[in-house]
Design brief:
The chain is about 40% helix and about 15% strand. With about 350 residues, the chain is α/β, with parallel strands linked by helices.
């Protein structure tokens, strides 16, 4: 297959997901998507559908793929020697490893994927749908739940703890090792209700379990959080989810018993805290006096940040509210260009 064949295959995959729901293979795909919550309760049908339709809409179109490919030299997608690239996938949100899969297959290398035990079969059913479109990918795809073996390079995503194991185990291979990252939002006080609704999606989509979910707010001194909280109500039904509710109620009890300062929205807790990563059901916030303080904060935590959200786009590397869960193909995790890494395997 050449790059045109691969673009066509992934474009057809996107079309099947979005418009071709009545074909037998697509019916099987959607049945698996809607049943994933039985294996992983965090993978609700609504969030699984949101994830895969976002992928199909923003990545799997002829225009998006062609524009992405055009950013690189032709050799990036025409390797002299096909390499077996191991991918250790996280399982925190639905279809979380698909961007790495797409990069490896588009680059003309062979995928050796280790799926998470939390994946709930989503990766395999999506690849099955891809193979129904382009059977030649069969020789390029190996999926396992066991130990990763027989590979030439590796892309591994995990926690700060597992990254130390990855650094040791994969040290002799070309690699990308990803650690925990968090996302923040900077509130200026000039936001609209519509922007705050976008922020709610940035925070609460996938129950806040993704690295692109906002877990920390930087707010002006003496800022009233009430208008912001009022626009979070679209997600109040999250408290009906038993695992989310357990987290929310646990931390509410802890804060009350220990007289820890917090605001309770009825389904999420806002707590002043200097840390970045907040627990499920909790949002941290911190005051700032001016934008110099914000920029210093960002510089200090740069290696831990995935997304910076703000209505003030003069803040370096920031994006607008409501955009964190719809990344572009060029929004590489940890800011590491996966295509350039794959292209380097043949140098």
């Amino acid at each position: 297959m050449d790059i045109k064949d691969r673009i066509l295959a992934f474009t057809q995959l996107g079309t099947k997901i979005l418009t071709d729901e009545q074909k037998p293979e697509t019916i099987e795909f959607w049945e698996a998507v809607n049943m994933a919550h039985q294996q992983n309760p965090w993978f609700t049908p609504a969030f699984c559908e949101y994830a895969i339709k976002s992928i199909a809409t923003h990545w799997l179109t002829e225009q998006s793929l062609n524009q992405w490919v055009a950013l690189y030299p032709k050799r990036a997608f025409n390797p002299k020697f096909e390499k077996r690239v191991g991918i250790v996938m996280a399982g925190n949100i639905p279809f979380v490893g698909f961007h790495d899969i797409l990069c490896v297959l588009m680059a003309g290398h062979k995928l050796v994927g280790k799926i998470s035990s939390k994946d709930a079969g989503l990766t395999q059913i999506l690849l099955k749908l891809l193979l129904s479109i382009e059977p030649r990918f069969k020789d390029y795809i190996t999926i396992t739940e066991e130990r990763l073996e027989n590979f030439d390079a590796v892309i591994a995503t995990g926690s700060n703890n597992t990254s130390r194991y990855f650094d040791y185990y994969f040290a002799k291979y070309p690699n990308i090792i990803r650690k925990n990252r968090q996302s923040i939002a900077i509130i200026t006080g000039n936001e609209t209700a519509e922007q705050f609704k976008g922020l709610a999606s940035d925070i609460f989509s996938y129950f806040g379990l993704g690295c692109r979910n906002v877990s920390k707010l930087l707010i002006p001194k003496d800022y009233d959080l009430t208008p912001l909280i009022d626009n979070f109500l679209e997600f109040k039904s999250l408290v009906n989810h038993h695992k989310y509710a357990n987290n929310y109620e646990y931390y509410r009890a802890i804060f009350l018993m220990n007289q820890i300062e917090h605001l309770d929205s009825g389904f999420a807790l806002l707590k002043p805290d200097e840390n970045l990563g907040s627990p499920v059901g909790v949002i941290y916030y911190q005051h700032y006096s001016d934008l110099n303080v914000v920029n210093e904060y960002i510089d200090r935590h740069n290696e831990q940040l995935q997304c910076i959200v703000s209505s003030n786009l003069s803040i370096p590397n920031s994006i607008g509210f409501g955009q964190t869960q719809n990344p572009l193909l060029t929004d590489y995790a940890d800011g590491i260009d996966t295509i350039n890494f794959l292209a380097s395997l043949n140098i």
